[in-house]
Amino acid sequence: MTGTPSTVADVMTHAVVAVGRDADFRDIADTLRRWRISAVPVLTGDGRVVGVVSEADLLVARDRDGERADALTAGRMMSVPAVTVHPGSPLNEAARAMARGHLKRLPVVDGQHYLVGIVSRGDLLKVYPGDDRELADRVRFELAAALGPRAAVDTGVRSENGRITLTGAPPGTLSAPLLERLVRAVPGVVGVELRLAAPA
């Protein structure tokens, strides 16, 4: 790859862990744990993406059905339709799709909806250099992805030598400790200071 990455194809991972519609709860949970990922695409027999099963889908199934959740298959638990992007999609389009859906990973599909790769938030963030301006942009991206686009609009984000200061309106309903943990998890952040207005 030469030059600055500009499309999903420039940053996506080609080797993808996926499951079929008949994979059961335990198979999916073991797959997520083994590969340390948060979601898997669900494929038809010929490799088309028909849905996605995430950690959240498993938790909902377990909470709703208890031990009976073990008998559920990917086809029953998956989120549909799957939110996907194409290899030629601009990076900002993929970022917006992740932010809108509060997603960490997107399947990458061709024109016939065959799976060709996966792109994660981490893949998108790798294209940014490590200066303070770009680090602040990374934090805004993570806030929008976790809490919705308004979080990045209403909350001021400043970075100075890797130390992030948040000002303005509190982003969403996260408690201060959880918000601080979210920001500290962004690569490059060395400290966090919250100067947020009290909720109205």
Description:
By secondary structure, the protein is an alpha/beta fold. It has helices at residues 8-11, 25-35, 55-65, 74-77, 91-101, 121-125, 132-147, 149-154, 176-184; strands at residues 19-20, 39-43, 49-54, 105-109, 115-120, 155-160, 163-168, 191-196. It contains nine helices and eight strands. Strands 1-2-3 form a three-stranded mixed beta sheet. The protein has a three-stranded mixed beta sheet with strand order 6-7-8. Strands 4-5 form a two-stranded antiparallel sheet. Strand 2 (39-43) and strand 3 (49-54) form a beta hairpin. Helix 5 crosses helix 7 (132-147). It is globular, with a radius of gyration of 18 Å. The protein starts with 7 loop residues before the first helix and ends with a strand. The mean pLDDT is 87.
Short description:
The chain has 200 residues and is α/β, with parallel strands linked by helices.
Computed structural class: alpha/beta
Termini separation comes to: 49 Å
Order of helices and strands: HEHEEHHHEEHHHEEHE
Tell me the strand order in the biggest sheet: 1-2-3
The biggest beta sheet, please? 3 strands, mixed
Low-confidence stretches: none
Overall mean pLDDT = 87
Taking all Cα atoms into account, the compactness measure Rg is: 18 Å
What proportion of the residues is helical, as a percent range? 25-40%
Describe the secondary structure blueprint for this structure.
Layout: H1 8-11, E1 19-20, H2 25-35, E2 39-43, E3 49-54, H3 55-65, H4 74-77, H5 91-101, E4 105-109, E5 115-120, H6 121-125, H7 132-147, H8 149-154, E6 155-160, E7 163-168, H9 176-184, E8 191-196
Parallel strand pairs: 1-2, 7-8
Antiparallel strand pairs: 2-3, 4-5, 6-7
